[in-house]
Design brief:
Structural class: alpha/beta
Shape: globular
Largest sheet: 7 strands, mixed
Number of helices: 4
Radius of gyration: 14 Å
Distance between the termini: 9 Å
Order of helices and strands: EEHEHHHEEEE
Length: 156
């Protein structure tokens, strides 16, 4: 039997299973999305991602103010297990917008590029907005605005 571990900083909201992808789509490919210049600064707009299989993704509400790197490391110290590809994020945003954006608050995702981890902040107001920062950056906006986090389900 699978057991989910959700740290006390998070509360489980929803589980989604996304289909496999060939890795050929980036966040910057989303029509009408405002992709902040951070993506170019960190060279996240270029190149194709990896092929992925069907992936269960958990959506959790952040219930305690905490730095993003502490939220992700509370789940596991192996951050590679929490990474979603940009293609997977595109699939989530296009196919499950109500689950990914249940309110006007941001949802956080973790991606990897050039052997570094990046926190993607996404929100939907009149259109989609995406920002990127290195996971250890002190520039990540107030976690108060980031109310949700999405990551691959970890099974223990």
């Amino acid at each position: 039997m699978k057991k989910r571990y959700i740290p006390t900083v998070l509360r489980f909201e929803n589980a989604i299973v996304i289909e496999g992808s060939n890795g050929n789509r980036n966040i910057s490919d989303l029509p009408g999305a405002n992709v902040h210049s951070d993506f170019a600064k960190y060279n996240l707009n270029n190149g194709l991602g990896q092929t992925t299989g069907q992936t269960p993704v958990l959506i959790c509400r952040i219930v305690k103010e905490e730095k993003p790197h502490k939220i992700f490391t509370a789940l596991t110290y192996n951050l590679n297990k929490l990474v979603l590809t940009q293609n997977q994020i595109v699939d989530l945003v296009e196919n499950y917008p109500d689950q990914i954006f249940p309110s006007e608050f941001c949802t956080l995702f973790l991606i990897k590029g050039a052997n570094k981890f990046y926190v993607i902040s996404a929100y939907k107001y009149s259109k989609l907005h995406f920002f990127a920062e290195e996971i250890t950056s002190k520039n990540i906006g107030s976690i108060f605005l980031h109310r949700y986090v999405a990551f691959p389900e970890l099974v223990y």
